[in-house]
Structures are given as structure tokens and as C-alpha cells.
Amino acid sequence: MREFFQKYKSTILYGFSLAVLLFLMKWLEFRLIVIDHALEIYIGSIAVVFTALGIWLALKLTKPKKETIIVEKEIYVNDAEFVQDRNQLEKLNLSKREMEVLELIAQGCSNQEIASQLFVSLPTIKTHSSKLFEKLDVNRRTQAVEKAKRLRLIP
Fold first, then answer.
1. Is the sign of the CA dihedral 118, 124, 128, 129 positive or negative?
2. From CA 155, how far away is CA 80, in angstroms rounded?
3. Is residue 154 exposed (0-12), middle (13-18) or buried (19+ Cβ within 10 Å)?
4. End-to-end alpha-carbon separation of the chain, Å?
5. What percent of the chain has pLDDT over 70?
6. In the predicted model, is pLDDT for residue 51 greater than 90?
7. Does pLDDT of 77 surpass 70?
8. Per-residue exposure over 116-137, b if at least 16 CB sit within 10 Å of its own CB, e if not
9. What is the DSSP string of the chain?
10. pLDDT band of 154, cuts 50, 70, 90
């Protein structure tokens, strides 16, 4: 090892002195840049921070607020011949007139059309409908038809 150092002593000292000089020059250059351009560096760093903040805020504000929600619902398809479930009919205690109203609702008839077909007044049909909705525990005509089909009350 000693021989290696003796043989390349001048090269090692020359390389070490160049490294020290290069380090000093870079340190002075950095110091001069920072001192001479301190205001520009400060302004540039503020600009970078506010640019990043602006991009983040723009992405948050332009993001759509509505999210698509997919609801999966079972659909009952009957390939066999329809057979009314009498047990459900008795359990719900639906009258014959309420069943007639339910069948006409399922056909898509309006209250006025149902009243005309059954030869009763419009308030009577509304009463039958509300009692039917109450017994089926639903709020809308479509819900009533869907639940009645599921319970096998109508085809």
C-alpha cells in the first residue's frame, strides 16, 4: 500500500487538490446565486406552491358531484302458467274490488280509466288504491304492481 502511495503520490495530491478547488468553486457559485437571486428564488418557490394549490383546487371544483349508483334488482320471469297464490291473498286480506283495481293498475290504467271500467266514482278508486297500497306496504303504483307480481297475486 505504501508503495502504491509513493508511486502515485503526485497524481493523488493533484486529484485531491482539484476536488477541493471544485468544491470551493461550486460552494461560491451556490452562495452567489442564493445571495444575488434570493428574491427570485423566494418568488419562484411561492409561485410553485400557489400553482400546485390552484391545480388541486381546480380539480376539486370541477370534479362531478354526482356519482352513478347502480342498483341491481331481481326480476321474476315466469315461464310456467300463472297460478294465483291464495295464501298470500288471504294473508293480505285483499278484497275482490281491490284485486280488480290492482289488475287494472298493472295494465297501466289511470284512476279515471279504472273508475270508468268499474262504474264507480274517482274518489272510490282513490280510496281502494290507498287501502291497497297500505295492505301491500308500498307508496307507488309501480311498487304495488312489482310486489303483487312477486307475491304471485297477479300475472
1. positive
2. 11
3. middle
4. 101
5. 96
6. yes
7. no
8. eebeeeeeebeebbeebbebbe
9. -HHHHHHTHHHHHHHHHHHHHHHHHHHHHHHHHHHHTHHHHHHHHHHHHHHHHHHHHHHHHHS-S--------------SPP---HHHHHHHT--HHHHHHHHHHHTT--HHHHHHHHT--HHHHHHHHHHHHHHHT-SSHHHHHHHHHHTTS--
10. confident
What is the reported pTM?
A: 0.49
Quote the cell numbers at residue 18. 482539484
Identify residue 80 by its one-letter amino acid code.
Answer: A
Q: Are 147 and 135 in contact (CB under 8 A)?
A: no
